[in-house]
Design brief:
12 strands; golgi apparatus; alpha/beta; Rossmann fold; XG_FTase; 15 helices; glycosyltransferase; globular; 6-stranded mixed beta sheet; single chain; 4-stranded mixed beta sheet; 457 residues; 2 domains
């Protein structure tokens, strides 16, 4: 996923309705989830649907998304903020007319990566807002609509689709000072939560900032980070998020399973690939290789790191250069399927050649290698990687974050290579399936600096 892909996130204040998070459901007929218990299920086509619409057989328990939805909820009567206040509703039209009549006009800013969308969705829940996303044409058709009888897509006719000017939270505070902002607040406000934050946005999660933002009807939020951990720093948010997610290292897993259901088109590609290359394997291994600088880190160096890590931890099977093998090994029939996701197909090709040239120690253990083709959508690759039994990802790679989060996997992390350097250890097991918060706040809400940012939150 390239670094210049962004998604606009617009948050609209609405009337509080109980149970939005528990009662939400995908609007398409297919209901699918991904967790550790569903990795070995078969992909089938339902006889009651189009033959081109694949399905997964799930038990009733997993239809609740691992506890994300409440038991006994009535899908037919399910109602969300989007149903009452989303696009094409009277509430939405009324709010838009009111905002457009104000003195402020706004620009639809962009936010990259699915991790940002998940974090913003959680913030919308905590602040009783509707989440709208500006999808460019290249993002259409990737996901199911997550909200019943509504949409999360910002209409192209919205006054905030292509506007150029909007007041920012930073300038607002610089101009008036937070203590003086009691009246005359803008109807629309731009919030920048990118890793290159200005000082005021660093306190976005704090009470004094949230008290102010609650009075702004519409927020346009831009971020390139998974800022969920900062929400734990706010006492009110902490209480609510802890109730929703008793295990706080599974926040993205649940949010992602709810929000990011593959569309029928994407699902057909996922299921057909899975059946052809992964379904019959005894073990599915995902390798996500991200090269940050191909000039300073030659392919050979990266390949050595990948092999050293995977062979040391017995993720891949060592090849045997000698022709003889014991009869016990000959009887082994373990099948490993390896999916290699990388912008450089050479890594998958190298692995394939290595195992074709030399047999594995058992002489019976079959290895299947399928690297990422350039025309395969990143979304499909991330979803397929999330179905792995063992996952190896590159540290600091957002692509890997999505895969490990959706699958609730704790991957082996390959260290980011810089200037052809070597590392020891070669790789380490991640302690969480959560995406990293790359640049967390460095100060508490009272302004005191954090002495140990690594302990955050």
């Amino acid at each position: 996923m390239s670094s210049n892909r962004f998604t606009t996130l617009i948050l609209l204040v609405v009337t509080v309705l109980p149970g939005i998070f528990q009662n939400g459901t995908a609007s398409e007929e297919r209901n699918t989830t991904t967790n550790n218990s569903s990795k070995n299920v078969s992909f089938t086509s339902s006889p009651n649907k189009s033959s081109t619409t694949p399905d997964i057989d799930l038990d009733d328990k997993d239809k609740l998304l691992g506890g994300l939805l409440t038991t006994g909820f009535d899908e037919a009567s399910c109602i969300t903020f989007h149903t009452r206040c989303g696009p094409n509703t009277r509430s939405y039209d009324r709010s838009m007319r009111k905002i457009v009549r104000s003195k402020n006009k706004g620009a639809a800013t962009l936010c990259k990566y699915l991790i940002c969308m998940a974090a913003t969705f959680l913030y919308a829940i905590l602040t009783d807002r509707v989440l709208l996303v500006k999808f460019d044409k290249d993002k259409h058709g990737l996901f199911c609509e997550p909200f019943l009888n509504s949409t999360w897509i910002l209409p192209e006719k919205s006054p905030f689709w292509n506007e150029k000017h909007i007041e920012t939270y930073h300038i607002l505070l610089e101009k008036d000072g937070a203590s003086n902002l009691k009246e005359g607040l803008p109807s629309v406000l731009f919030i920048n939560l990118q890793h290159t934050l200005s000082e005021p946005e660093k306190y976005f999660h704090c009470d004094h900032s949230q008290d102010l933002l609650r009075k702004v009807p519409l927020m346009i939020l831009q971020s390139d980070q998974y800022f969920v951990p900062s929400l734990f720093m706010n006492p009110f948010f902490n209480l609510e998020v802890t109730k929703m997610f008793p295990e706080k290292d599974t926040v993205f897993h649940h949010l992602g399973r709810y929000l990011f259901q593959p569309s029928n088109e994407a699902w057909e590609l996922i299921s057909s690939y899975y059946e052809a290359h992964l379904a019959k394997a005894d073990e599915r291994i995902g390798l996500q290789i991200r090269v940050f600088n191909a000039i300073s880190t030659p392919q050979e160096t990266v390949m050595d790191l990948v092999l050293s890590c995977t062979l040391k931890h017995k993720i891949l099977t060592e090849v045997e250069l000698q022709s003889s093998a014991s009869s016990a090994r000959k009887n082994q029939t373990t099948v490993k399927a390896v999916l290699v996701a990388s912008l450089y197909r050479e890594y998958g090709d190298n692995l394939r050649r290595m195992y074709r040239k030399n047999p594995t120690p058992s002489h019976e253990e079959h290895q299947k290698y399928n690297d990422n083709k350039h025309n395969m959508k990143a979304w499909i690759d991330m979803y397929l990687l999330s179905l792995s039994d063992e996952l190896v990802t590159t540290s600091l790679s957002t692509f890997g974050y999505v895969a490990q989060g959706l699958g609730n996997l704790k991957p082996w992390l390959l260290y980011r290579l810089v200037n052809n350097e070597t590392h020891f250890p070669l790789c380490e097991r991640d302690f969480s399936s959560e995406p990293c918060y790359h640049v967390p706040p460095k100060h508490y809400c009272n302004g005191k600096p954090m002495k140990n940012v690594s302990s955050f939150p």
